[in-house]
Amino acid sequence: MMLDDTTKYEIFRNRDETYSGQFYMGVRSTGIFCRPGCPARTPKAENCLFFQNAEGALKAGYRPCKRCHPMNMPGEASALIKKLINLVESDPERRWSEKDLLANGVDPSTARRQFKSRFGMTFSAYVRQCNLAKARQCLAQGDSVIEAQLCAGFDSPSGFRVAFAKTFGQSPKDVKISPLLIDWIDTPLGTMVTICDEQEVYLAEFTVRKNLQGQLEKLTTAYKRPILPGRNDITMLVETQIKSYFHGSLKSFDLPIKTTGTDFQNGVWQALCDIPYGQTRSYAQLATAIGNDKAFRAVASSNARNGLAIIIPCHRVINKGGALGGYAGGLDKKRWLLDHEARVSKSSNRAAAP
Ligand SMILES: [Zn+2]
Fold first, then answer.
1. Higher pLDDT, 206 or 125
2. What pLDDT, on the 0 to 100 scale, is given for residue 354?
3. Ligand 1 centroid vs 34 CA: distance in angstroms?
């Protein structure tokens, strides 16, 4: 049976498991390949290409997806192969030697033979392909060639260049750095700016926020990626959800978010996400929620450093006496957001009443 690419793409969109093992899909933007039935979001069609088998995808420099485990398909992968694949996934930095395999109770020659007969390459070739794919992601994110070489576990620069060129048909230094994309959303409270890449949202802020430029510069420095205007699936997902929030039809966000903070800040931001829609907490209560009663000042400053306005609901934190406290986007916005949530909660309670 011959399926054309459009049909194959549809099979992926429908998460149709029945075709699992019959073909594979590589995603150019992430360097990952999947099997039909993968639960991950289906990328845009122009980023996808198809392979008849896992070997083809590996040789083209794609890494197996951690959600759908395409290397385990079709179903008859031996326990040994599954074990080896899991070992590599659990410790991607390691250079697997025969000694490591033996230490994990795996006979190296059995591993070599089974891998070869199933994937047309040895286990060590498989590990090398995974590492090259990882190196390519490093380069695309702005790492230097030497960093990518070390990340791929190559001692020699020329060995790395040759292996890389053989797999990807280009030299490591020619890999284009993928930019972070900036886009704008109109809301009842004015324009919001978003920064996304192919996988996550990094920033969502009102354009009037103090020191927005400084925040953007911090992102380009931290991730070594330029910021360019553009839209992708994530941008559109963020826009849809923000608009639904303002419309009153969305109460909690379901977005892949990327935060750039210390462990403490990340803890505070997580605790913010746990405050239910339509409710408020004081800075002191938030400090208690993260198990650090005395830290309410640090909590307040982490709150102010939240770069994902509304999505991480820092507007739900107010002063102990009920005064609004601060808000980077302006207190009028904070008031509006709290009133909006109170209004929506009330009308949905009314609707639920008998
Ligand atoms: Zn997948």
1. 206
2. 58
3. 4
